[in-house]
Amino acid sequence: MYSKCHKMEAAKKVFDYLEEKNVVLWNSMLGGYLQNGYSSAVLASFFSMSGFGFKCDEFTYTSILSACGSLGYSELGQQLHSSIVKNRFNSNLFVGNALVDMYAKLGSLNEARQQFELIRNRDNISWNAIIVGYVQEEYENEAFSMFKRMNLNGLLPDEVTLASILSACSNLHAIGQGRQIHCLSVKSGLETSLYVGGSLIDMYAKCGSLESSDTVFSCMNKHSVVSMNALISGYAHRYLHKSVILFQKMLIEGLKPSEITFVSILDACDDSSKLNLGTQIHCFIIKIALLNDDEFLSVSLLGMYMNCLRKTEASVLFLELPNPKCRILWTSIISGHTQNGWSDEALKFYKQMHCDAIKPDQATFASVLKASSSLASLRDGREIHSLIFHYGFNFDELTSSALVDMYAKCGDLKSSVQVFEEMGSNKNDIISWNSMIVGFAKNGGAENALKVFYELQNTNVKPDDVTFLGVLTACSHSGRVNEGRQIFDIMVNYYKIQPRLDHFACMVDLLGRWGYLKEAEEFINRLNFEPGSMIWATLLGACKLHGDEMRGRRAAEKLIKLQPSSSSPYVLLCNIYAGSGNWDGANSLRREMKGKGVKKYPGFSWIVVEEKTNLFVAGDNCHPCAGEIYAVLTDLTKLMKEIFEVDSSCDDNLIE
Known about the structure:
36 helices, disordered C terminus, mainly alpha
């Protein structure tokens, strides 16, 4: 009674009070702990039972095998399996089902299937155990095959069967098969049950058919948190207001929102316009004290603030979370800062993580290496590389790809190539190839970039849009115009990759940079969409390079219409006019800029000194060490002038 009422402490007191215990009582305690989710207590009780000399029966084995599956105790499960065979319980249906379930939960599907095939008088639990196992490990086709076989054997699917096979349909976005299962659930009279109904809602939502999800939801006599979560999650990213209405309905119906409810809504609060809603959800979570030990929810809250560009709020939330903070939380705050361009802060959080002795993983290293790349901080990158070796991630593909990218962006191509070559045959993902190709392309290694691309074509890895962008960039920088034309054609007609805006801009740059301005303009005119500022700016830059005033003026006019407040088209066209001696045109443009209030903002450079990034702008006096900097600059200028004068006099003597 106490077990069924979720009062395991009271059940334990009664059990301990009994002087004489038998196998039935022990099994009751084991079953009670298992049903209430206390798998560790099941094991502890089992060892106590064995210590008192009680022998296991089929019900004991059923409970302990299930606990091993839940806790991931593979070795203990195999030992129990040997004991089962030794004691001749392996032909028992309950024990056989428990073995299939345990191996499936452990991810050992071959062993699970072997045990399944050994069961003679299979029931629904047998079939459900193997089907659920295949679905959880994402072997959906095997799950479909077993489901068909179950039907051919004359067994009617129950709620668990239908819910599991609907999850397989969701994973594959197989709405056709999902509709067939829906028909079967109607035929079985289970379509409005909480379990099957929730799975139908989830399947339709993930397949993009929200109307069908809504229809199923409306037909259900009773709603659960699971069914409402499925619909809230489905609506969240496209119709957030409907998710909020469903959330309010959940509260009105007296249902308690779960972590998944909040995460679904928070993940949809992905820009500043939704910050108010995200903050309200945060307040509600605090009110019901759900945040304290829930890492899943904390990560979503951090993500929400980062997506809304609220760095301070994210940092405050992170500091308020209890210590020690887990690796997932550290990685979340680091990646959030990196993705928003706050690389300095990302590195500071990473160093604090290291000081707190939290071990990074591949995702952590990938994020912090990206931060080092953004700052061109080779020193930080090398220190991180040494830790990657220390933790044994040097052969991990994700981490190695990030290293290749970091070294390339920091200008250390030698180290980038070394990491790439050390990956050997472990380059099964296009990311590592792209990192090397783009690294060469952006550092003047066009020939090597093309060499890597042709090497890639001899592997089983398929190039993607980023690959071709890197290769086209390499062709543009090295003047390989014909090769660039061919590669663009291969991308579109052989690999069937739809070019993005930057691919078109790269082709314009390739043609324009090397003097094919007419062809570049014709290429733009043939596009089946209205060209954006990136394309016209590229053509304008090429016109400046070659002094083509006529085409430059046309490109500048287009660009000014698209970006009226940008100084770039005015400055570039002004330089074209000045280069051709058209001073009237140049002065007219300057007056037009002034009349429209268009200002040219200066660029800046930076250098990292003693782990601090220092920014500089021409004529800047804001730096705290500006006096010392200008004093050194004056000395350097004087020294350069002296060297120039000496060189000039040497040249004069040689002439004489």
